[in-house]
Amino acid sequence: MLSVAARKRFGGFTLDATWTSNQPIVALVGPSGAGKTLTLQCIAGLIAPDEGRIVSAGRVLFDRAEGVNLRPQERRIGYVFQGYALFPHMTVHENIAFGLRTRRRAAGSLDRPDRTTAIIERLDLAGVTAKYPSELSGGQQQRVALARALATDPDVLLLDEPLSALDAPLRRELCGDLSRTLRDWGKIAILVTHDLSEAYQIADTVVLYEHGKTTSAVLKNDLLWHPSSERVARLIGARNILRGVIAELSDDAIVLEWRGGRLEAARSPSHQLHARAGEPLAFFVRPEYVRLIRKNRPVTDGLRQTNLFHGSIVGERDEGATWVLFFRLDRPGAPSQETFDLEIEIPKLVYERLNISADRHWDVSIHPGSIQVLPH
Amino acid sequence: MDWFPVWLSFRVALLATLLTVSIGVPIAWLMARRSFPGRDLVSAALLTPLVLPPTVLGYYLLMVIGARGPVGRLLGKWDIELAFTWRAAVLAAAVGSFALLVKTAQSGFESIDKRLEQAAQTLGHSDWSIFWNVSIPLAWRSILAGTVLAFCKALGDFGITLMVAGDIPGRTQTLPLAIYDHVQANQLDHANLLSLVSVGIVLLLMLAFGRIVRLRY
Q: Do the interacting molecules here have an ipTM over 0.85?
């Protein structure tokens, strides 16, 4: 368990990070300059917060009120720096063994040669131990940085953008490797990334950063499928964030007034919603869940008749494997997103089968389960 | 011709450089990596020997190490004389060359990626250990370059040496002083030879300096 409360002012920027996670792997996600690296530096003791308290596995690392501020050397924190920060004048072996060469550890019970050898084997670095960092590939450098940090057996491992220095194909491959290494290791790891999908693949919980402020740590599935607010939905890049008015409310469904029509949404019993009929409500519709239906064709299954809208495609974007279509309803009034009402994502195959480049008028049906309401 | 000044200058410059390096490198590290009150003042003070008239530096140094100065009096208790001995020449050369070494080494320390030293901290190493195992090995080119510059400067000191060590032939007459004396005595062939020796030594050292700067770790 790790709990962080850190406030730090830096000129015009203020970091105000408060979160607690009891899951092994936490990802801090947000744009650059949002305070993610600063948080890691506070946890590692490289920077002292102006106020706050940082507790790792029951040990108080920092507490301004109690005057506790352990030195980085005493915190038992491993740090994989952005760009890896390997010692350029040491070989791979010397880099990895460096953390075991301190006087305090020399006196301890750690069997140093054994530990170094074990970690070198585990991270598949046996062939390059005599090389210098500049002679290694990006992926190897990343593993050396990981091995160096893990060799001292820290309580918590901090990883600052561990994959961003790599090319895209390699990044995908190493994402899985990194995830496995961290799972095998089994202690608390904190991963900083600007890429939500990377966070989703590796971490258990996610903390979102924006302008130095944080959300609490949220289980990753909850974050994607039940964002806690409109702000969180925007931060995770949710599309089709729309606003309607609650028309009817029952235990398992919400009917919304939207663009002069009725939109039926399923209501998840596990997620509280404090709202009444007549109140405005934000919601979002996942672009890949909107179904296209050929016009004037008899509708056979009942589900397709709910949330059925007429309209036309007013724009499109080829994204390689998928197409994004911008759909505008045949209804009076301004469209809900500048020039269109819904963003729809379909596989390329469907785009070609339905001959969408020629045929622009469609009906769409929105599955009630794909509409996520956003509490205030 | 008397070759003693050449030999004396070598010895003085070598000892002065040793003194400068052992005090100057830690100070350069402090200036590059630590903030403390009065840091800007110290930084400015470190530069002044490069631009102050040598006579001013020599005057203050004499006030400190002279028979009536604080250091002079202290050493006087053990019958150690400093002023107007070859030891004073070492101090004079050290004072004149100190700033060159500190500034060169400081820029070497400043150019080290801070994260390397931070990584060593999180790996449990003390500041002392980081200084020796990370900072020095990564800044050694700058330190060596600064050392060569400081040695050359020490070899050529005239004004400060004259003020605190005098110009005693066979005792404190260094190479630059000897050249001056030869010119005064109209022994131009001697002055010419010693000047050529000076140029030769410094040229060789500067060539070495150029090689050092291009080396890797």
A: no
CATH code of residue A197? 3.40.50.300
CA dihedral A307, A308, A313, A314 (to 10 degrees): -60
* Contact flag A89-B118 (C-beta cutoff 8 Å): no
* Of residues A44, A87, A103, nearest to B122 (C-beta): A44
What's the one-letter identity of residue A278?
G
Parse chain B into domains and list their residue ranges. 4-214
Do A87 and B121 lie within an 8 Å CB cutoff? Answer: no
pLDDT digits (tens, 9 = 90+) for A264-296: 988 876 666 777 888 899 999 989 889 888 776
Q: B139 pLDDT exceeds 70?
A: yes
Interval B24-44: pLDDT, tens? 999 999 999 988 899 999 999
Domain boundary among A202, A234, A266: A234
B137 touches chain A (CB under 8 A): yes
Tens of pLDDT along A85-131?
Answer: 999 999 999 999 999 887 665 555 555 678 888 999 999 999 999 99
Per-residue confidence (pLDDT) for residue A298, from 0 to 100: 64
User: What would the CATH number be for the domain defined by B4-214?
Assistant: 1.10.3720.10
Whether residue A9 is found in the same domain as residue A102: yes
Chain A positions contacting chain B at CB under 8 Å are: 44-46, 71-73, 75, 77-79, 81-83, 85, 87-89, 98-99, 101-105, 148-149, 152
Closest Cβ–Cβ partner in B122, B126, B129 for A77: B122
Asked which of A262-271, B120-129, B163-172 is least confident by mean pLDDT, the reply is A262-271
Residues A160 and A300 in one domain: no
Contacts with A, B 103-132, CB within 8 Å: 113, 115-116, 118-126, 129
Look up the domain containing A361 and give its range: 241-374
Q: What is the pLDDT of residue A104?
A: 60
* A162 and A246 inside one domain: no
Q: Do residues A191 and A76 both lie within one domain?
A: yes
What SS3 class is residue A31?
A: coil
Q: Do B122 and A83 touch (CB under 8 A)?
A: no
**Number of domains forming the structure of chain A:** 2
Inter-chain contact A102–B124, Cβ cutoff 8 Å? yes
Contact between chains at A88 and B122 (C-beta distance less than 8 A): no
Q: Do A221 and A251 fall into the same domain?
A: no
Q: How far apart are CA A23 and CA A219, in angstroms?
A: 9
